[in-house]
Structure formats: structure tokens, C-alpha cells
Amino acid sequence: MSIVGAMSFVSSRAQVEPFRVMQILGRALARDDAILLCVGQPASPAPAPVITGAHTYLDTHTLGYTATLGIPELREAIADWHSRTYNVRTEAKNVVVTTGSSGGFVALFLAALEHGDSIAMTRPGYPAYRNALKALGANVVDVVCGADTRFQPTVDKLEKLNPTPRAVIVTSPDNPTGTIIDPEELARIAKWCEENECLLISDEIYHGITYGRQCVTAHQFSPNAAVVGSLSKYFSMTGWRLGWLIVPDHLVEPLENLEANLALCPPAISQYAALHAFGQDARAELEGHVAKYAAARDVLLRELPSLGLGRFAPPDGGFYLWVDVSHLTENSELWCQHILDTTGVALAPGTDFDPVDGKKFVRISFCVEPEQVSEAVRRLKKVMVDTTT
Ligand SMILES: Cc1ncc(COP(=O)(O)O)c(C=O)c1O
């Protein structure tokens, strides 16, 4: 029998950054008293009708593979929800159900873009776009966005890019900043994309979680945009791993062929159960969660300035605050570790979201009970006088 020596099979495409939020989470979970303001995961379970539905389907269905693009009833339900919410005409044939929006992004990148294409995303921005795109061989182009544009891209910024990107990702409400793009600017970007043969990818996974501002879908401005949605956030179903793409006709078959080979189908039990996520009962429960996020947000908006953490753009939606801590530390990773060690409050260092300036920022998630946020503030107050690292 031959002895095979230790060989290394790590590809260069696997050399992506770790998700540091998960490292902080790991350390936090090792404590009994941790308050998790580091992850973007609703503390609530799926709506009751979804859970009841899941039990029923478990008892009555074989739950084998489903159609690759998703079960027709769910594609229909998503199209209907999208049409009603935004007063647009979205058809089930353009809906592709995916394994979380994360699975949808990878499939979409593969279906629409060539190796080496330039893709524009905001910095700060959601790190998995950057890392997944890099692994797929794309050229990620940063659109640096600050408080002046409320961390959202503008046509002016896109015009300055050279070469013109093949795709632009707009995230609204945004992660990590919680800002919502102005409808007029999204309309301008959609038009610019049409004129420049650039695919507009609109990440709308935080839609439904807003605080007094409305979200618009990119489909209101362009039938050619790719819209990305998810059951993870508003619908409080992170671990059920369901998301969707709404794409123009020409992308449906390529996505079907790719997904058939990459994933076969999205999780069956989640799809059947998710049929119950769009009804009135679920809606009432989900609006209750949004009310709690709003209360938690109010606590932070009121209290953070008194902790010396007053430099942020008030979030219009989602459940994050992007806070400038550059006056307290030169390294938000060390600072977050220090805060976790001394208070049990887990915050996310900004380095995941901004590889250049992220050490100056932290992201605070507030998708927990408002009381937990109050308790976090109480603990932070105790140590904030003495935390400069
Ligand atoms: C902006 C954004 N897009 C996409 C995702 C992926 O979410 P999921 O795969 O659970 O739909 C996340 C997760 O936090 C996110 O913040």
C-alpha cells in the first residue's frame, strides 16, 4: 500500500478573507453572559404559520428534490408578494428560488458575468460579495461611499470608474450602514446601467424592515435589473436557507442549468413551509419584530452619543449601525475584543465591511430584544471612559 504524503490542495481562489464577525461570535458564544450585537440574525424564530406548515409537510410529504427553480407555488407567492408590495408586474417565470440569497448571488454572478469582469460594489459593503466575486475570478471595484452620500452609490461615482463595470451591486437598506438609497438616485443608476450595458444587481434582502422611509424595488426603474430577495431577514428565517432572484427572461434558463448542477434545488422543507410566510397571520407577527427593531434602534440612537459613539448615519432600515470609533481606537478589531472581554457585549469590527478603513468603524446589530440593547448600553457605560487601545 503506498503512503501518500501530506499534500496541500488549497486553490488560490480559496484565499479569501475570513468573516471576522464569525470569529467574534465564536468567542462571544463561549461566554454565558454575551449580548450578541455582532450578527445580522433575527433573534426570533420563523413565523408560527411557517413552523406549523413545516410540521405538516414533514408528516405528509416525501420531501425529495424539487424543481430546480423552486416549487411553482412558491415562485408564484414571491411574484405575487413582489407585485403587490411595489405595484409592479412580476411574473413567477422570472423568479428563481435559491439557497439563501447567498446561493442566488453566486448563481447570478456565474450566469451573468465573465471571468475577469469588473463589478462595482460600495465600500463599506457586504463582504461576501467581494469574497465570492474574488473566488469566482471577478475584478471587484470599490465605490467608496461616505456619510456625504449616506454610504450609497451615485451615478457621479459610477461615471468616474474606469473601465465601466459590467455590473453594479446596490444594497438598500444597506449592510453595514442601514441606509436606504433615494428612489431618484436608484432610478438614475438604473438608467445609467441601461445606457452602459451594465447589470444592475439590487440587493433588496432587508426590504420590509424600515423606519419611516419607503423602499423601492429596482424593477420599478428597469426590467433588466436583477433583484435579490431573501426569507432570512424580514421573514425571520435565516437558517431555513431560502432566497430568490427576480431576473429578466434571458437569465432564467442559464440559472436553471447552473443551479441544477450546483445545488439541484433549494431545501424542500423550507420551500413548502415558506408558502405560509406571505399570509396575513405571518405578516402580523413579522411587523411585531420590526416594531421591536425600531424600539432597539431608538435606544441606540438615544444612548450612543452619551457613550461617545455618536458618529453614525441613522439607519433608515435593516438592523445595523455603522459607527465611527476612530477617536477611540486605531484598530476596531482589538477594540471589539476588548469590549467583549470587559463587558460581554459583542460588536463587529468594521474590517469585514471595509478592508481599507474598517479599522476605524464598528457595526452594531440591533435585531435583538430592546431590553438586551438597554442592558448592553448599561454595560458599555461602565467601561467606556477607559477603553482607548
Ligand atoms: C446585504 C446582504 N446580502 C445578502 C446576505 C445573505 O443572506 P442570506 O443568504 O441569508 O439570504 C446578507 C446576510 O447577512 C446581507 O447582509
CATH architecture field of the largest domain: 3-Layer(aba) Sandwich
**CATH-derived topology of the largest domain:** Aspartate Aminotransferase, domain 2
Instruction: Please mark out the parts with pLDDT under 50 across 5 or more consecutive residues, or reply none.
Output: none
Q: How many distinct folded domains?
A: 2
Q: What is the CA-atom radius of gyration, in angstroms?
A: 21 Å
Features:
7-stranded mixed sheet; Aspartate Aminotransferase, domain 2; 389 residues; single chain; globular; alpha/beta; binds pyridoxal-5'-phosphate; 3-stranded antiparallel sheet
Explain what the structure shows.
The protein contains twelve helices and twelve strands. 48% of the residues are buried. The protein is globular. The strands form three sheets. Strands 2-8-7-6-5-3-4 form a seven-stranded mixed beta sheet, sandwiched between helices. A three-stranded antiparallel beta sheet has the order 9-12-11. Strands 1-10 form a two-stranded parallel ribbon. It has helices spanning 20-29, 48-60, 72-86, 100-112, 127-135, 155-159, 183-195, 249-262, 268-274, 280-303, 332-343, 370-383, and strands at 35-36, 95-98, 118-123, 139-144, 167-171, 199-203, 226-230, 243-246, 320-324, 345-346, 348-349, 361-365. Helix 2 crosses helix 9 and helix 4 crosses helix 8 (249-262). It has two domains: 16-46 and 281-383, Aspartate Aminotransferase, domain 2 (3-Layer(aba) Sandwich), CATH 3.40.640.10; 49-277, Type I PLP-dependent aspartate aminotransferase-like (Major domain) (Aspartate Aminotransferase, domain 2). It is 38% helix and 13% strand. The protein is of the alpha/beta class. The mean pLDDT is 94. Pyridoxal-5'-phosphate (PLP) is lined by residues 40, 100-102, 126, 171, 175, 203, 205, 230, 232, 238, 243. The site of pyridoxal-5'-phosphate (PLP) has 13 residues, from helix 4.
